[in-house]
Amino acid sequence: MKAAVEIIRKLCILFLITLYFQGTASADGDSVIFTGNTIDIGLRELAKGITAASSKRDLESLAAAVTDRYHKLGYTTTMVEKIHVRKDGIVEIAIRESKIAEITVRGVSDGIAKSICAILRPSEGELYNVHVLRSRSMEVRRRLDISSIKIRVLNRDGSEDVSLVVTARRPLWGTFRGEMLYEPIYGLSPFIEYRQKMAQCSLTLHGNAGVRQSEFRKKEGVLRFSVETFDRCQIFADFGWTGKTDVWESAHTEYHERTHRPSVGMNVQSGGFVFELSFVQSSIHLRDYPSGEDDHSELFVKASAAYRETDILLPGMDGKSFAISASSGKSSLLEGYFMKGEAMGVTSWSPAVWLTFRSKFIGQYVSAHERYYMFYVFDRFLPGFADDFTSTTARLLLGVESEFEVYPDTVYLAPLVNGGRFRSEAGPSWYNAVGSGISISVRIGTFGFQAVYAWDIQGNMKDGSFLMTANGTF
Predict the structure, then answer these.
(1) Residue 58, exposed/middle/buried by CB under 10 A (0-12, 13-18, 19+)?
(2) What tens digit of pLDDT does each residue of 10-35 get?
């Protein structure tokens, strides 16, 4: 008898313990399970306090909250299919997630259609998300030169999945990009670029010139033909021609150069990043050069990486960008090999809608102590030193500005400071230079204009110089 009583007592204790833990689980929302969901969007927190004893109204409110969360995150065709209480007391919420089952593209070639499908749905089984699809549509327009893209979403009979019907159009003409720059070295410098996409290949032409003191100081043209070999990877062939008049200030002379520069290479794009490797051969003719008039040649390899946060970077526009390159080769101008490296970047921070702090850096180095390979110190990146054509083998520039919004989304005013440290052309000595100034910018759509007046911080303000830039895409 005592043994039976002891068994009954232990069973009662076990029952009470089970009831306790069931109550705790229910209070924590563990009595609710979700089925059919493949992504984590924090549904568990919505189910807190829901148990098998919850009212029908509470259960319906939970189902509505789950559907609403999916919709707010862009999964607008996903919903709660049913909610019920199982025999074991668990509340089960069945979710019907909607995947992109099929994409049909109209209005473009089969090759372009395949590329569009790959961008819109990179992998099978992806859920339909209106925000993601909108972002990928913009990527389609940017990468494939699509002028318009419209997407219809259709329900598939007998399925929770959807089909996309995409209508795309390509422009009859390519894309033009233009810029007009006035800078200290080459003066008034127009630039124009035309890009034509053709199925899996593209043709790009650009040219620029510089006019100073009523004469051409620079003329340049580049033709690039590129073919997309596989997704986001291109091989290209370039042919460039340059004619310039440069100043060798320490030698108190000007010299003229004419260069033909064919090259081949490849580049890979990933998001805002571009990686490029090229092999370049140059034929150089120098006239009025201190060493005499002569023809030279060079052969070098160049590797570069660049990142740009926005597709169109107007003067002073917010965004982050950087570029770095390194090259090495052999030239008949030099006794041995040369190395060259460049890096530059821009970043910005906006603590208020009317205020943006912007900073930039530029670093340049070349191992060749030959004027042809050197950099100008006081170019458009370090303005304010009028008629100073000092050259260098190495320089580091830092600049900061505080931009104030004068008229909403259109007119901006910015005081600025640029500082540079550079190596003497003749030897290892280093020098410093600091310029200050003010800029005014106008930005309307894809058009931008910026005017800068800068001066040597140790000199007289009236002895400064102007820098102007206007550019746009059309």
Answers:
(1) middle
(2) 555 554 454 444 443 333 446 888 89
